[in-house]
Amino acid sequence: MFVTLWRMITFGFQNFFRNIWLSLITVLIVVLNLFLMSLVSGLNVVGQQTLTAVRQKVDLSVYFIPTTSEQRVDQIRQELLRKPEVQSIRLITRAEHLQELKKSAVDKGLVDAAIDALGDNPLGAGLVITSKTLDGYGAIANTLKDPKYQSIIEDTGNNFQTNQTVISRLSLIVNRVQVATLWLTLLFAVIAILMVFNTIRVAIYSQREEIGIMKLVGASDAFVRGPFVITSLLYGLVASILVTAVLVPILSLTNPFFAQFFAGYDINVLGYVREHLWTILGLEVAVGCGLSVISSLFAIGRYLRV
Amino acid sequence: MVTFEHVTKTYQRRNVGLEDVSVNIEAGEFVSIVGQSGSGKTTFAKLIIAEEKADKGHITIGGWNITHIKHHEIPTLRRQIGVVFQDFKLLPKKTLFENVAFALEVAGERATRIKSVVPQVLKIVGLEQKMDRYPDQVSGGEQQRVVIARALVHRPKLLVADEPTGNLDSINAQEIIALLKKINEFGTTVVLVTHNREIVNMLHKRVITLDHGHVIADQQAGKYLL
Ligand SMILES: Nc1ncnc2c1ncn2[C@@H]1O[C@H](COP(=O)(O)OP(=O)(O)OP(=O)(O)O)[C@@H](O)[C@H]1O
Ligand SMILES: [Mg+2]
C-alpha cells in the first residue's frame, strides 16, 4: 500500500519533470490566474471593509436650544435608548459642545471673541446617536420629528442625510464590484482549469504506451490514474505557494498608496495580509490544488479510459 | 486452465469476433491458435485476459469464472496471466531491466523483490548480460525476448502470446518458440496465437484452427491446416 502510494507520487513527479516546459507554463498560467483571483477577491474585501468603516463613522446628532436643561436632554436620551434601532447615544453637554466648536474653528480667537461678546455659552446640549443599522437612522429621525422633541430641537444638524446618500451610492458600487469580481474570479478559474486540463491531456497522450502496458500487466485503475492527479496537485501546490510569495512583497510596495487612500479609516491591507498569512496561504493552496485536481479528473475521465 | 463454453463475441456493427466457441485447455498444455486474418484469434486472446467481454457463453480461467468479471478484479486476473501482445512493445526510454521492472512496479511490488526477480527472468530469456541496454541497442529478437520476460515477472501459470514472432525472421522466430517451449516445460500453460505455418508444423503440439469465428479443427500434435 505504502509502496504503491510512494510510486504513484514518484510517477506524478516524473510527469511534472518529463515535460518540464509545459509544466512551467502551466504553473505560470495557474499563478497568473490565482494572482488575479486573489487581487479581485482582495478588492472585494477592501470594498466591504470600506463600507463597514464608513458606516461606523455615521451618526446622527441633534442639538437642543440652549434653554433646554441637561436633565431634560438626558431624559430624552433615556427615552430614545428604548428604541430598538438605537445602538448608543452619547450626551454632549453645553460645555462640551462649545469645546468642540472651538476645536473645529479655524480662527480660535474669533470664537473666543464672539463668546466674550455674548457673555454666555450660546450653545445647547446635544445627543450623538448611532443606529444598529443604516436604515435605523431614518426611523430615529422620524421619532425626533415628534412635536414634543421638535419644539426644543435647534438643529438636527449635520450631515446625516448626505452621509446616507454617499453610503447608498458606495454600497451600490461595492455590490456591483462584488458581482463583477465574482464573474471575473469564475473566468480566471475556468482559464486555469482549461490550462491544467490540456496539460494533463497531453501527459496522458504522451504516455499512452506506458498506460497500455500498465493495464496489461495488471496495474489497478487507481495506480494508472493516480500519478496524473498527483501531477496536477503539484501544479496547484507550486502555483499557490508562488502566488502567496509574490503577493506579500507586492502589497508591501503598494501599501503606502493604500495607507494614504484609507487615511483616517481602520483599514490596513498589508497588516491584514500579514496577520492572516497562513489563512491566505491555506486558501490559495486549497483553491489552486482544488482547481488543478478538478481539471485533471476531467481530463482523466475523458482521455484515460480504464 | 482455460475453458470456453459456447462463447460468442460480436463487435459493433455485427462484426463477428467469435461464435459459439467451446474449447478446453488443460494446465501444462502448449496450444497454438491458428487461422486466417480476421478469423478471431486475437479476440480469443483478449477474452482470456478480460480485455473484451463475451456476449454469450462462459469463460473460466484457472477455475475462476470470469464471464462477468468485475472491473476492479481485472488487475488480479492479469497478474496471474503473462501477456505478450503485438501492440505492447518495450518502452524506448527505459533499459531492458527497467522495462521488466516496470511490470512489477505498477503492481506494487517491493523494490527489493524487483531487484531479485528481474535478473532472474532476464536470465531465463538469456539477456541478463544486456539488461542495462536500451531497446534500440538490442536486436528485434532480443527485444521480443524481453517482452516475454516482462510477461513472466508474476510467475504466471498461463502465458498468452499473440503473434510473438510477428516481424521476426525465421531464425529469431525459432528462438522465441524455443523459449516458449522452455517456459512450457517449466509448467506454464502456453497459448500461442500465430500465422506461422513453419512453426506450427514443427511444434507437434495441439493446434486449434479458427475460421470466421468458429473452431473448425482441434488436433493434438496437429498441423497448420489452411
Ligand atoms: N474492436 C473491434 N471492433 C470491431 N470489430 C472488430 C474489433 N476487433 C476485431 N474485430 C473484428 O473481429 C474479427 C476478428 O478479429 P481478430 O482481431 O480476432 O482477428 P485475428 O484472427 O486476430 O486477425 P489477424 O490475424 O489479422 O490478427 C474481424 O472480423 C475483425 O474485423
Ligand atoms: Mg490478431
Q: What is the total number of structural domains of chain B? A: 2
Structural class of chain A: alpha+beta
Spatial strand sequence of the major β-sheet of chain A: 2-3-1-4
Q: In which range does the helix fraction of chain A lie? A: over 70%
Q: Provide the CATH architecture of the largest domain in chain B.
A: 3-Layer(aba) Sandwich
**Share of β-strand residues of chain B:** 25-35%
Can you put this structure into words, describing what you see?
The complex is a heterodimer of chains A (306) and B (226). Chain A has two domains: 2-55 and 173-304, no CATH class; 59-168, Alpha-Beta Plaits, CATH 3.30.70. In chain A, 76% of the residues lie in helices and 7% in strands. Chain A has helices at 2-18, 20-57, 70-81, 94-104, 108-118, 136-144, 147-150, 160-206, 208-216, 221-261, 269-275, 277-303, and strands spanning 60-64, 86-92, 126-131, 153-155. Chain A has a four-stranded antiparallel beta sheet. In chain A, α2 crosses α10. Chain B is of the alpha/beta class and 226 residues long. In chain B, the strands form two sheets. A six-stranded mixed beta sheet of chain B has the order 6-7-8-3-9-10, sandwiched between helices. Chain B has a four-stranded antiparallel beta sheet with strand order 2-1-4-5, with helices on one face. The longest helix of chain B has 16 residues, at 170-185. Classes of the chains: A alpha+beta (306), B alpha/beta (226). At the A-B interface, α1, α9 and α10 of A face α2 and α3 of B. The complex binds adenosine-5'-triphosphate and magnesium ion. Adenosine-5'-triphosphate (ATP) binds next to β2 and α1 of chain B. Adenosine-5'-triphosphate binds next to β2 and α1 of chain B.
